[in-house]
């Protein structure tokens, strides 16, 4: 049965999102308004009866001086990725984007390939069995994911490496998640390692107070975020970005974005942002001061967010990106080390895939990105 793709309204897109258990926070209409440097479009796939059966948010980034675009669907589109006839979804997508002037298309299928539990990862690290997560036998894998990858390759899609033509917006392939569904809060906390449980108690005894903030508290978050950027040597986003994110996301849904701040003796020591779509909650940005780390504000704020995610009915609390390195000497190992304390799972997604509509322009963009 063929599918018809068309531009859909914001209301149609939101109604589709609400009909699903969850979609990525980068596949809701308001995310297009957050990414103001891109042009955005909501698209939908309709079946023969006209019912919407798939949707996506497309971000268009224009090449300098020419009306040609990179079309990017971060962590999307939201379609039936396990359909044996995947081409009936992707062929109309490519035709539509080509008509819009796209010279290259980048997608991020929201398909998990493998999962590794904390115990499996710790055992691999302790035994020095592997230096990469991908070299460790998973606790769970999705056989259909390999079929999806094969169908994409046969259709001319190219799998991105750990970088690509995302203008800095390439999404992580490996993430760390804490399952919440069908568990009690006591069970979730028992899953934490001893250090995490001890740090949460220490924060409580030290008088750390975690509060939910609002728009007016964003400058407090941003000051801590700038300190974190200086300490960890990354380029921080401006305050205006977070203000725009708050305005757009919370207008769409009051719970779409939340801000948390951890105070000790009236002083803000840590701050985080949290995003929610349906039953999926993401820890998005984190920031902390350079002092008073002994009162453990970061553990306290994470525990508060997990409890609030649970109260919202979330099935998963997502701590977002990790590297797949298991080498304790690698600076990137710290990304997974802190998150392992939650007793969650590492998950590998199918990664991002590119389709070069215009091979010359696509190659030129690849060359430009490799020299940045």
Automatic annotation (TrEMBL):
> Which keywords fit this entry according to its UniProt record?
Acyltransferase, Cell shape, Cell wall biogenesis/degradation, Peptidoglycan synthesis, Transferase
Species in which this protein is naturally found: Kitasatospora viridis
Tell me the protein's name. Lipid II:glycine glycyltransferase (Peptidoglycan interpeptide bridge formation enzyme)
Record flagged with keyword Phosphoprotein = no
Q: Which family does it belong to?
A: Belongs to the FemABX family.
Spell out the molecular function terms from Gene Ontology: aminoacyltransferase activity
Show the PANTHER family listed in the entry.
LIPID II:GLYCINE GLYCYLTRANSFERASE (PTHR36174)
Single GO biological process annotation from the record: cell wall organization
Tell me which Pfam families the record gives: FemAB
Which PROSITE patterns does this one have?
FEMABX (PS51191)
